[in-house]
Design goal:
2 copies of one chain form a homodimer.
Chain A lengths: L4 H8 L3 H9 L6 H14 L5 H8 L4 E6 L5 H16 L3 E6 L4 H7 L4 E4 L5 H14 L6 E5 L7 E5 L1 H14 L5 E4 L7 H12 L5 E3 L6 H14 L6 E4 L2 H13 L9 E4 L14 E4 L2 H17 L9 E4 L2 E3 L10
Parallel strand pairs in A: 1-2, 1-3, 3-4, 4-5, 5-11, 6-7, 6-8, 8-9, 9-10
Antiparallel strand pairs in A: 10-12
Chain A binds a DNA duplex (16 and 16 nucleotides) through helix 2 and helix 4.
DNA sequence: CTGAAAGCGCTTACAG
DNA sequence: CTGAAAGCGCTTACAG
């Protein structure tokens, strides 16, 4: 933990510069000294200090990620995938759970790029706009994913309005007339799409269950409470994510509601687990492998081409509707 | 992105040192210059460079975490919790998915401490032993959680043998005579506890389903395949984690197996979702809030008390058995 | 209260 | 092929 180039230099009788070169592999240096230095360095247990190395280059070898809920399975999966990709290139990921000062924090740590999802948080969008403006001339890569695109940043566009619209349309076409929507802790653009589908048909606006603290247990209780007070029940439910689906379905079941006979159900997200529910659940969401892959490609390109900003890179991922038993159309 | 202390110094006519002090809040400096410097720094859009700051102190303000599967819900939750705690103290988390060189990588990045779980991976344990030995005199904090304790490191002990034993004992006492155990991609100490419970009763050793690639889908298929080839069925099943439970249960259901009538079932982990299955699933696992909290306390202590190594800190979390309908004892 | 200087560990033109 | 020197951006004794 303590051995420095200086120590190796002293031990070998070489200069610090020579040792540095012997170890770095990219300058010419005589094979003999190179081997010798490497051997001694190994013996001494030398571990290069990457932070010191970065000091010179001005880059930190770190990518910042703004997120709002790592706990979510999809977020975790995405993060895990990114970490592996980054790690293969010796790049670090600095995760910042969104707060007032999180972007500032990332900047203070001199991240080489920022990735951000959760663009439904207005403060986050605003902060990203601010730094995008501030850093524009500077060629600082910001890559977002979501429905909102900020000029000056790259994006993987996920049309949440479309995904809500698509799923609601399917449910209405299957016979639903009144929809209930669980929204988790926060409204997102997906509700807009659902509303639009209702509007087009002259059907009543969907009812929303908005939950303060969107954990599995609290969503379960929110739905329980809704059911206890409801005079008439909707004939369809859209569950906002995979994680809460178990809680919501349990609440429905305990209320004696059968799916799809009494109520059709679907998840407005796709973590690949819809088919493992009973009955299998219809899902409408974005392929997260595709998403993460696009994200990574843009990121890699930007890291490898600093100073060549050019136009914003924008990729789109379409929402995919997977129809399963839970939204069977004949009420069988 | 470009403003340095030097620039502020030039602009204010002060020395770099004075500017540094005005901004750092801990040295005495006249109120007027302090205010002035801060105002100017703000106007210039100064963002301190934390990495440069750390250069001097020798600490990186980063904690390394070795993990093997961030995708797992519990790992993600733990990580999220830790990140929030660390972020409040402006400490970074460097996550390293375990690989040959991951510890070396953390060390190169001069992490101030290492946290590691997944102690069922022999190579990881070996590597941790090596660096623990190498860094011992150096007061480098290593905090692990799991069943194995490495001398010279702190630990939150999770007795996996005990958790397996406890759950198997419960199932046997409920009437099971032959157990099937899904192990995910890797054997862990939990199987030892299950075997021990069988041994004590003179019952046959549990059958194990070991899966190469433990995803939800592959566990589903692994169980399907097992069921297709089994001559006689076990009367109890232990599922190794929450994530795979949905797949395993679906496979059982498709095979016409009713729980608990035909087969009792339980999860050897507790992510707080057991009660949301149909029927509610018995679980035996460790309280992850407690675990993470203990982890954080040890970590915080170590970071705040460098150079005061003393004895290893060891905390224990007991496995908790939560009995639910899926293991009802009278076969009703 | 403020400045000049040394230093954190490394890299990299620039000379030789 | 190798060394002396400057520098990355900041902090911190040490003088004044």
């Amino acid at each position: 933990m303590k051995v420095r180039l200086k120590d190796i230099a002293a031990r070998t009788g070489l200069s610090i510069a020579a040792v540095s070169r012997a170890l770095s592999d990219k300058s010419d240096i005589s094979p003999e000294t190179k081997d010798m230095v490497r051997r001694i360095a190994g013996e001494m247990g030398y571990i290069p200090n990457i932070n010191a190395r970065n000091m010179k280059s001005g880059r930190s070898g770190t990518v910042g990620m703004l997120t709002s809920h790592l706990v979510n399975a999809l977020t975790a999966e995405r993060t895990s995938y990114l970490i592996r990709k980054l790690q293969m290139r010796n790049i670090k990921l600095l995760i910042s759970e969104f707060a007032d000062n999180s972007i500032e924090w990332l900047l203070q740590n001199r991240v080489d790029a920022i990735i951000a999802g959760s663009m439904f948080i207005p403060e986050m969008v605003q902060q990203l706009k601010d730094i995008s403006k501030r850093c524009l001339g500077n060629d600082f890569p910001i890559i977002t994913f979501g429905t909102v695109h900020i000029p000056g940043t790259d994006a993987v566009k996920l049309d949440y309005i479309e995904s809500g619209y698509k799923l609601a349309t399917h449910l209405y076409d299957s016979g639903c007339r009144s929809l209930l929507v669980t929204c988790g802790g926060v409204m997102s653009r997906r509700e807009d799409g659902i509303r639009q589908a209702a509007l087009e048909r002259g059907l009543p606006m969907p009812e929303l269950i908005l939950d303060k603290e969107p954990t599995l247990a609290s969503e379960y209780h929110a739905v329980k409470e809704y059911l206890a007070n409801a005079k008439t029940l909707p004939d369809g439910i859209i569950i906002h994510n995979n994680h809460s689906a178990m809680g919501v379905l349990t609440a429905l079941r305990e209320h004696g509601i059968r799916i799809p006979q009494d109520m059709r159900a679907a998840i407005l997200e796709d973590a690949g687990i819809g088919q493992y529910f009973t009955p299998p659940l219809t899902t409408c969401g974005f392929d997260h492998f595709l998403l993460t892959d696009q994200l990574w490609k843009i990121l890699e390109y930007r890291l490898d081409h600093p100073g060549a900003r050019g136009a914003d890179i924008i990729k789109s991922i379409p929402p995919v509707l997977k129809i399963r038993e839970s939204s069977a159309s004949d009420g069988k």
